[in-house]
Amino acid sequence: MSQPRTLGQIAERYGLDLHGDPELSIDGVGTLRGAGASQISFLANPAYRAQLAHCRAAAVVLREADRAAAPGAALVSANPYAAFARIAAEFVPRQAHPPGIHPSAAVDPEATIDPSAHIGAHCSIGARTQIAPGAVLGPGCIIGPDCVIGVDALLVARVTLVTRVRLGARVIVHPGAVLGADGFGIAMDQGRWLKVPQLGGVVIGDDCEIGANTTIDRGALDDTVLEDDVRLDNQIQIGHNVRIGAHTALAGCVAVAGSVQIGRYCLIGGGAGIAGHLSIADHVSIHAMSLVSHSIRTSGTYASGTALEDAASWRRNMARLRRLDQFVRRSGAARKATE
Fold this sequence. Notes:
The protein is α/β, with parallel strands linked by helices.
């Protein structure tokens, strides 16, 4: 599909309501503050509405309610951010990945690689691993035994699949990610830790994206599973036997302990921690830096912790919080005495 070059072509391709010159030429995208006269920008967050007055973009993708404030052409959408994401993808330079295996790659004789796949420099591919048509392994990827890499999957660079990892179609894995390492399974016996063998694998559904330096442990017995269209940011830890439902997104530095079940369409903010063996319902949003210490059975938005404040106020409030239980007990006793 060729890049659209005019506002009219863009509006037609993405089903947008155009208010402006359909012949106006477009050569890129940009922010409200930084876009040039031949670029498209977008307004999705009302907090940035004031920037519209000074925007130099050729057109802005926005909601109907904001159209009158657009200084130039407008592309109206019910979901401006999603529409802009589709438009922006048209202007991303496409890196060529010619099919074939780089001479420096090490491929086990028992591995199966489709001729249309691209295997980059210094990759290592283990026994019985299968690589599907159109898959791309960037430089330095290490693929262990018994792995499956799906159709058109992209491993950007230095990705490690340790063992028994299955990636679905169109999965993207960013540099430094490690999938399929041992889960943290240990048992105390006579004063010493005993390692519990990790015999499961990792299963990643279609259209998932896994951020840089994220780690996903393989299961102890059953597999660790990400269903279709799960999105993980950078530096996330997913423990063994976790299951994450389709279309859920986790922001950076989230830590999910073992055997957690997370539902579909959940949003988990950066730095949140989820204790082991819990269940989270579908359509749950968890604020950043929250600690989830019990299962969440009902859809909704949840948060924990205290908001930032000056240190002196925080110390006073923490001192009062430590006395809260004593205060409640005294209040209860006084109430009973008056009854």
